[in-house]
């Protein structure tokens, strides 16, 4: 649309310019024509005046000849005739008068008709002028000397023998004009001569259409008479006088306009193309700029922690890769201190991720704002930071650094109306012990930190070579464990739970066992913690649940009895995403009533999961699964948790049963737990029963369910069939809901 608008504007401008150019060129051409006509008219006027002057000169010359002649006037008249006739055809008669202007003699030069006159009849004033004529000539009207009123007479006065005579040269003015005009006029002009309103002479056809506009006038005085000359060109002459063909100008203008329109359209097209290229160039520049920004941002994000905005492990490794060779060359040591927030996961779980994230940000800020100007600070894990600094005095300098770190991060944090106390554990390693290798240095710091976290809070440990052997051992165990999971060497064993009064099996607790290459079994406490720190805990738990439910279904189909099945889950297992759905799906798939499934957790874990913010236990109860708590004692927190989310069973822990009945305090605590279960109508059982005395203790206090090595050791699934076949198994109908 813009292109056509530009073309229309160009067309209008071209039309205006064409009209203007046509007008200006036409005006210029007309001006030149006018000047040409004017010049031609002036040339003709000059020639006419020249001829008249020649006639006057001829008269004066004749007069001088006559004055000097001694001949008689009649003889002189004949001589004058002979002198004038060949050269002045316009003089058609010579007349001689006496002093009274009476006719003496006349000669016709161009006609045979003589005038029948006696004298020269002229007005008195003309005669008076002639009488005063002495030496010069006088041109006057011919009057009666010619039948044509426009003819003129040139009078000469001559004295001979004291007598005065007058010679009159009668001129045919029409012949004079005709001969002069025809001789001097440029071809193509038309001329008209008038005296007043009387036409004197006309050298023209009937083509007078150009006369009104293109005529030129000039006036010539002859004697006392004024002749008006009008001169104009013929149409053919006028056409020939045009230098510029005005009719061609609009065509040229239109063609030029079309050319300009084409140029404008091409220019607009190229301008549009240029704008498109500029837009594309701008967009490309923007994309490049955005890409640079994204690359810079990605480069920043790749080496910075998004939460705390401190450098991350990648940046730390790059720094160490650049710095450690320099320090090694200069034999300068570097200390690396790995910092871990004690029980951060508990804080995060109890107060929420928002508080946990803010705690990490503020902890990073405190480390940055400490009195120590560290060479580098990085967040290398969830709740772990690492700082490095050139070491001047070995262990003493490192101890000073750790004391300042403890002091700088000791005050409590106030976050969203919460007062959060967060302590740190520190692992210290030196670059010289790692041969100035970055990966080795970080492994040493991590080993030292793991050792420091073995204590309660504010742990501090320096790397020693023995820690490396422990780390290597853990790595070896982890590799073997991965291989065992792949080869299905992590098995499920079942420990029977007995109804003591009937001495029958009422249920089984599923336990993991790791079959090692020598055939022995590793207990969960030897590898469960390591599993929880890796991703193996999730697939292993899922496999455990499916395997146990498969075995349970087979027992029911074979023995037609109902048993309770017990899972003891850790905090990591309880936090598996989709745990409730996993259990519900497998219960339905294996057609197992959910009330025969017990999920057992320890006392501390139970207390942490009964708050309104954590609803995993409520979700499990909602699908019909029963919750069991392994208790080692009673305190306010436990009682409060029981009020918040009442469990279905209480299991007296192995630790509590260990010294019963000899330890009176433990016996009293166990008895209290049994009474609490009775009062709350909770199912009470004991684990770790190793003696008959312990069985008697439980029976005396109406705790009728127990498990332990004294009753039966954990066994694989294939041995369960033999156990069930060897005894009469009563249905479990005395489990109190």
TrEMBL record:
For the keyword Ubl conjugation, the answer is no
Q: Name one Pfam family in it.
A: GGDEF
The reply to whether tRNA-binding figures as a keyword in the UniProt entry is no
- Report the InterPro entries cross-referenced here: Biofilm_reg_signaling (IPR052155), EAL_dom (IPR001633), EAL_sf (IPR035919), GGDEF_dom (IPR000160), Nucleotide_cyclase (IPR029787), Rev_trsase/Diguanyl_cyclase (IPR043128)
Q: Where does the record place the GGDEF domain? A: 332-465
PROSITE patterns, alphabetized: EAL (PS50883), GGDEF (PS50887)
Q: Which keywords does this Swiss-Prot/TrEMBL entry list?
A: Membrane, Transmembrane, Transmembrane helix
Record field: transmembrane = 6-25, 243-265
Question: Domain EAL, which positions?
Answer: 474-728
Gene3D superfamilies the UniProt entry points to: 3.30.70.270, EAL domain
Which SUPFAM superfamilies did the record assign?
EAL domain-like, Nucleotide cyclase
Q: Which NCBIfam families match?
A: GGDEF (TIGR00254)
PANTHER family in the cross-refs: BIOFILM ARCHITECTURE MAINTENANCE PROTEIN MBAA, DIGUANYLATE CYCLASE DGCP
Protein name stated in the entry: Diguanylate cyclase/phosphodiesterase
* Native organism: Pseudidiomarina indica
